[in-house]
Write a structure and sequence with these properties.
single chain, alpha+beta, Nucleotidyltransferase, domain 5, 2 domains, eight-stranded mixed beta sheet, six-stranded mixed beta sheet, 19 helices, globular, disordered N terminus, disordered C terminus, ATP binding
Length: 488
């Protein structure tokens, strides 16, 4: 298996037409996309969309991983109709995993990070190991669904039989080409990866009596794993296609496609979750970042050099509105337009634990929070949506202030990528709350980052290609109605 980035090999082909397949698995949907790179511009075509979500069984919550695999194979069949394909790569949400036995078969189901099995586990582990020990070794935000706590909640018989633990995108890469490794950016989300040494923080698992022999080898984004397995080629009609690791953590791929230049910028990867962060050359692990519960996740390298660090905060994002709309059943564009016309008022803490579980009673939870905190209680879907959007903007501004303070890096521009970049009212509210210029787009940052890493582009090259390929919108801070400036 080749493990080096392919930028040097591919640089002479920068003006040739090349096609790549990106598989993006999100918490609520998945896509298989065709990327065509020609003349320094990237065109992205969604070939197949499919729903995703948790499957409740006997009081627990799981992912339908075999159903996702079926959809991936269907998307690859569609891709085979588009001529020669150079490579394919998978990214997904973080923290969740599958355990494999000695034959490479799954042991049990793939648990959902919102599964009730995790209730109280983080608190137990933190009491046993101490926050200082965990954070100093990993620099990762304390979240109840981190892989560290998931393994602590794992069935003992599975851990005894397990030979390998693979994160979700690594599992699909294994099924595609038969190579069982983990890519650095997703490894860094587990809370048992040491970002300073670039190795597993196995001592944490040892202290919890979790076998460390299940941990696979860590490789870099851009690593070539090998060709599709013969059975996959036969099923999909794709022959001679390489499997290349993108940044398998979807946020890392999205950040690689942030169309930023120079310094003084932050990013918000805005979707079901909202990840607010900056890029730093080294991890920032201090008592202050631990107190602020900031996370140090690995990013991709710059011009073949060492990986960057994504210093960020993981915040509840559009999940609250998505769950509210499960009951409302409204068209999102109209809902956001109505919310824009509503005057701002009450604020919630979007990270309050009550908003984490799924359920169509989410509007009642928002109203209860406002009532308990002595604020006006929003009544209509538009008022509740405006409350949530205002709260997300306010929380984003708070985190940007903290990031400036702990890093010493002033922030003048905020790049918003992902699905939330389409919500003009939210972008404007973030500009107003933070007092910073907001640049929105691209929507498909995760797919673009995935594809450009497969193509061997360096980080500066990838961002230049994104700027040349996308229309962006700029929002200037003001207190009046949203105002967008078109730019290229």
């Amino acid at each position: 298996m080749a493990s080096q980035n392919q930028s040097n090999q591919n640089s002479h082909e920068s003006h040739a037409t090349r096609r790549f397949i990106a598989i993006d698995l999100g918490a609520s949907s998945g896509r298989v996309a065709l990327g065509t790179l020609e003349g320094g511009k990237l065109q992205v075509e969604i070939l197949h969309r499919f729903p995703n979500g948790g499957v409740p069984v006997r009081g627990q919550l799981y992912w339908d991983i075999l159903g996702l695999w079926r959809e991936v194979l269907h998307g690859l069949k569609l891709a085979s109709r588009h001529g020669e394909i150079a490579s394919v790569g998978v990214n997904s949400w973080a923290v969740d995993y599958g355990l494999l036995d000695g034959r490479g078969d799954l042991l049990g189901q793939v648990h959902h990070y919102r599964s009730p099995r995790l209730s109280g586990v983080m608190e137990r582990v933190r009491a046993q190991l101490s926050d200082e020990r965990i954070y100093d070794a990993t620099g990762i935000q304390f979240l109840p669904f981190n892989t560290l706590y998931q393994l602590a909640a794992e069935a003992p018989e599975h851990l005894v039989r397990a030979q390998t633990m693979l994160m979700v995108p690594d599992l699909l890469h294994f099924w595609l080409c038969g190579v069982a490794v983990t890519e650095r950016t997703n490894a860094s989300s587990t809370q048992f990866f040491n970002p300073q040494t670039g190795t597993w923080a196995a001592e944490l698992l040892n202290a919890l009596e979790i076998p460390t022999g299940i941990l696979p080898r860590i490789v870099e984004a851009g690593s070539v794993l090998g060709e599709l397995l013969p059975e996959v080629s036969r099923e999909t009609g794709l022959g001679g296609v390489q499997v290349i690791m993108p940044a398998t953590h979807d946020t890392a791929s999205a950040v690689a496609a942030v169309p930023a230049e120079g310094t003084g910028w932050a990013y918000v990867s805005s979707g079901t979750w909202s990840l607010v962060g900056i890029e730093t050359p080294q991890p920032v692990i201090t008592p202050r970042t631990r107190a602020e519960n900031l996370t140090n996740e690995a990013g991709v390298g710059v011009d073949g050099q060492g990986a960057t660090t994504r210093l960020l905060k993981n915040v509840m994002g559009l999940w609250i509105i998505q769950q509210c709309n499960e009951g409302w059943g409204l068209e999102y564009g109209e809902l956001y337009a109505q919310a824009q016309a509503v005057e701002g008022g009450p604020l919630i803490d979007p990270d309050d634990a009550r908003f984490s579980p799924p359920g169509a009673d989410m509007p009642v939870r928002v109203q209860t929070y406002c009532r308990e905190t002595g604020q006006a209680v929003p009544q209509t879907p538009a008022e509740i949506t405006r409350c949530v959007l205002d709260s997300l903007a306010h929380r984003t501004a708070q985190i940007l202030d903290v990031l400036e303070d702990v890093s010493g890096q002033p922030i003048s521009t905020v790049h918003i990528v992902g699905g939330g970049s389409q919500i003009g009212v939210l972008n404007q509210l973030i500009a107003d709350a933070s007092g910073k210029t907001v640049v929105a787009g691209p929507v498909e940052a995760t797919l673009m980052g995935n594809l450009l890493i497969q193509a061997g582009a360096s980080l500066p090259e990838a961002r230049q290609i994104v700027r040349d390929s996308c229309d962006l919108r700029t929002f200037l801070p003001r207190q009046s109605a949203p105002h967008a400036v078109e730019s290229r």
